[in-house]
Amino acid sequence: MPILSDIKAILGGFRITLSHMLRRPVTIQYPEEKRIPYPRYRARIVLTRDPDGGERCVACYLCSAACPVDCISMEAAEQEDGRRYAAWFRINFSRCIFCGLCAEACPTLAIQMTPDYEICKRDIMDLVAEKEDLLIDGCGKDDSYNYYHHAGIAVTQPRGEGLEEAPPVDIRTLMP
Ligand code: SF4
Ligand code: SF4
After folding, report:
1. 36-150 architecture in CATH?
2. I want to staple 41 with a disulfide (CB 3.0 to 4.6 A). Which of 37, 117, 152, 158 is the partner?
């Protein structure tokens, strides 16, 4: 009978409504209550330092070249000892899509993504971050890596005696 099928359909709807009323709510009362994202969540970008406090960025432009929306710019400079650094470094967060390609491309681990997602601003010009806004005092996610221990401005050790460097191969041992 049609009336019975109508009642069944109405009761089915009520059953679904009641089952949802008994579930724990998934909404969060932001900003009083803050969600903790996963450690690899990609949000605010920072420039890190190596363990002895030097700036890791060597102004190689790789992050800028990898960025699909072209929102990273900088100017390279050189210290007296030949070590390169960014005289200025700028990220326009109003264009950034937080894809992480810049961090993937960086050979020195200087540029890193953090889980800090609270970066909204009312004025769009406040989303342009300069080097002093980006540079932090710590090493970020890798607190032991120092680029200049692996590829420095002056290599003084004999071959095979660098950090984590394998001894050179004697080519005479490769002869048939
Ligand atoms: S996260 Fe992506 S879009 Fe943002 S600066 Fe890096 S490469 Fe560019
Ligand atoms: S942040 Fe990394 S990839 Fe970008 S210029 Fe500096 S060293 Fe190169």
Report:
1. 2-Layer Sandwich (3.30)
2. 37
